[in-house]
Amino acid sequence: MTTPDALRRLTKHGLTLATVVLLAACSHANEGPAASSSVAAPTASALPVISPDQLDVGNYLSAPRPVLGAAGSVEAGAAAEARRMAEYVIGPWDVDASLIDPYLGTYYVMDTPAVLAQLGPEAIAEAAQSHGFVGGFASARKSDQAVLVNAVLRFPDPAAAAAAAGAMADAAAASPIRGVRPDRTPIPGHPEATAVSYPFTPQGSDHPWTVVRSFNPHGTFVLTQLTQTSAGPDAATGLIAKAIATQGPVIDGFTPTDVAALAQIPLDPTGLLARTVLVTGEVKPTKNAVYPTRAAMHFQSDPVASKKLFADTGVTAVAMGQANVYQSRDSQTAQAITKGFDNEVLLQGAKPADQVPALPQSHCAARPKGFYCVAPAGQYAIEANGVALPETQQLVAAQYVLLTQK
Prior knowledge:
Elements: H1 74-85, E1 101-110, H2 113-116, H3 122-130, E2 135-142, E3 146-154, H4 158-173, E4 183-185, E5 194-200, E6 209-218, E7 221-229, H5 233-251, E8 289-292, H6 293-296, H7 303-313, E9 317-320, E10 324-327, H8 331-347, E11 351-353, E12 363-367, E13 370-377, E14 380-386, H9 389-404
Antiparallel strand pairs: 1-2, 2-3, 3-7, 4-5, 5-6, 6-7, 8-9, 9-10, 10-14, 11-12, 12-13, 13-14
Helix pairs in contact: 3-4
C-alpha cells in the first residue's frame, strides 16, 4: 500500500494462494522472490460485526469525527490540490512496466517550490516560482537499466506555463552537474519540449549513463521528466517522448481548482477520512488523505501488480492515515485482501504473531523492526504497523470500530 514509511515488505509481483487474492499492494520496499498472482471467486461469507466493548482500542480515537470541511488556508489547499493531481499524473510504469522499484522519494506532493527543488538543481525550482508555480505531483521509479521521474506542474495560465518551461530549461542548461555542463537535446516527436542532457556514471557502474531533463508546456501545466538510462541517448529521449505522449491526455482530464479558491477545497469529500485513524503531530503531505485507485498506485511497492489487485477486488478508495483502509467491493473481497497481505509478509520472512484480540479474521506478524496487522471490517481491509504488538493491535481495533459503528 504505502511508501517510505512502508507497512509491508512485499514480493515484487505478489503470490498465488488457493481461493483468495494473493497479490501485494503496499509499501516501498521490494524484497523477496517474485511469484505470480491471481484472484479466484471469494468463498468467504460476511462476518458478524464485533461489538466495540469486546475490543481494546487503547488510547486511539474510535468514535467517528465530523467530516472534515474546507482546507481553510491557501497552504493547506495547495497540498490538497497537489494530492488531487496525483490521479492525473502517470507513473513511470505506465511508460515502461519494468520501472517499478522505488527511486529517491518515489512520490512528491509538490505544494511548495521547496519540494520541487528536491528533484533537481534549486535554480529550476526558482525559475518555476518566478512564474507563479501553483503546485504539482511527481512519481519516480527505476529498474536496473533506467530511471524515470514524471511530474506535472501547474501554473496560473498557459502563458505562465510556457514561460516557466523555457525558464526551467534555461536553468537546467546553466547548472553544471559534477562539472559537466548539460547540452540542449531534442525530444523526438515533441518540438514543443525543451530538454538538456549530460552523462552521469552511477555508483558501481563501469560506464556513463545518459541523463535527460525535459520541460514541455501543456496548457496551464508543464510536463517535466528526468530519465537516466544505460542504453544511450536515443533510449533516454525515446522514454521521455513516450512519457509526454502518455501524460498529456491524462492531465487533460483534471479540472483545476481556481487559485483564488484553494482554501475552499474540501479535505474529505468521500467522508472516509472521518472514519480513519489519522496521524497526529507532524503529518507527511501524503498522509491523512483519501486517494482514488489510480492515485493510490503511486504509493504501492509494485504498482503494476497493485493495479490488478485493485481491479480484481473492486478497490475504489485508499485512505492513508495512521492506519490504512482499502475500500473494496464487498466483505468477501476485503477478507481476501487481508489474507493475501498476511501471506505476503510471511513469505518475506515475518513470523506469525497473536491476532488482534476478539477479531478472529485478523492476522499479525512480527518483523525485524516491529509488527504488522491486518483485518477485514465489512467491505474494508485494514492494515497497520507499529513498534510494539499491543499498540498495533489496538490501532487495528480502533480502526475496526470506526469503520463498523454507525
